[in-house]
Amino acid sequence: MIPQYLVDFDVNELTVIDTDVIVIGSGIAGLFTAIKASEDRRVIMITKKSLLESNTRYAQGGIAAVISEEDSPQYHRQDTLLAGAGLCSSDSVDILVNEGPGGVQELIKLGTSFDLENGELALTQEGAHSHRRILHANGDATGYEIVRALAEQVTTHSNIEVWDNHFVIDLITEENECLGALVQHPDGKKVFLRGSATILCSGGAGQLYRYTTNPEVATSDGIAMAYRAGALIRDMEFIQFHPTSLCYPGAPRFLISEAVRGEGAVLRNIKGERFMEKYHELLELAPRDIVARAIVSEMEETGSSLVYLDITHEAPETIKHRFPTIYETCIGYGLDMTTDWIPVAPAAHYMMGGVKTSHHGETSVNRLFACGEVSSTGVHGANRLASNSLSEALVFGRRIIDRISQLDRLEKTGKGISYKANREEKAITPIVELRMKLQRIMVRQVGLRRTGEGLLKGLQDLKRQLPIFDTVLHTREQLEFANMLTSALLLAEAALAREESRGGHYREDYPERNDIEWRKHILQHREKGMSEEISDDV
After folding, report:
1. Does the pLDDT value for residue 301 go beyond 80?
2. What's the predicted TM-score (pTM) here?
3. How confident is the model at residue 290 (pLDDT cuts 50, 70, 90)?
4. How many domains does the chain contain in total?
């Protein structure tokens, strides 16, 4: 069994620092909730690296919200439910589509500059959206612009204290109540950060896979620490692989936004043949999981490691104006998307599941909230609709702050809490080797296409790494790996249990969706194990 805490500690021997609200993570969820909470509370915000390093920063396509008079919340709702493949929470989706436009207006007030067209907010369309409702900034640098604007607000706010380059080891709990966090300073010193409310905004799990569009910091720390703290984890098997990441020698797996296909780009196999008509009536604008698997099928059929994205039929000036970041990145590697087909392949991109929350971001642990990709609000179901994630962070971040305003002050001090396990002080295999081994297992056995046999083998291979929990861990890299292993085990176990194919989870041995038996969620709890919950997607 995975232990409650990764390291031994005694609160009585730690420096204790008090604040009102603790925010863990610095993507759109962390920044926005910190700003909202700081209106009448003291906030300490912890980030592993820096304010500007998060998944949000790399979000290109944009943020989905009903702005156009031709659009409506009902259309947005239908699109979201369709993509979610029967596992969305209808109530959560209603909240998102109706409150999303207000969240966008708050972003604008906080200094985000979205692109305009004839004096109006410019809107584009992305895969599986029925209408143009995607706002973007600087063409394809939406995430960076949002993080820039919000980070400026955070760094100048007198009620927000930012701890850069700090690592949250664990959440400290007493009688199913979160009292705060055990935090490691850059020099290795540990402190107990105590707060009336703790908000997990720690992002996703892309680094569980060898090829990912996520940054290095996306090691699934929040999922793992919430699981150890006793929170319910939901829908871990649903991982979204982005169909089109740059696949070129010497280049990182840079995201080639869905918006490129939204603006008319087509997919071609290594022979130059357009192929999506064989797989879905929406062609290149089909849901991401379908496009990603279609690409893998074409790669296997043609014996290639990539396919091509072709937007050369568009005017060069249009491409440069709409996708300046993608254009410049490709040019840096000798690829001109106005004249060249861009080599692409799928990469791990987004985690639909996470820490189960209420409609106000509450987890099953009192005073612990979750927001953004680390959470499972019910909005995304089995497959996230493009550009819904940024909207979700705003909408539920605002709701979390509403609920925190109703909390009484923390009465418990945590002074009696200590934890000691019989851990050995011994040499650990270099973490880079352990990480690569874990990533290899995840890609081969728990990736885009899965089988029961492969998942079982993957689980057995992962469990061979469990002795690391009996070892004294010192460095951030060691602690990160323990979190990655925790989340990888949860993911593989849930994927093995779900004997059907749905959304981001595809089983070759159970290729059909089975609504009679599997229109339900898989829940995981450290002490209670695995259980199921019927979906309320109507």
Report:
1. yes
2. 0.92
3. confident
4. 2
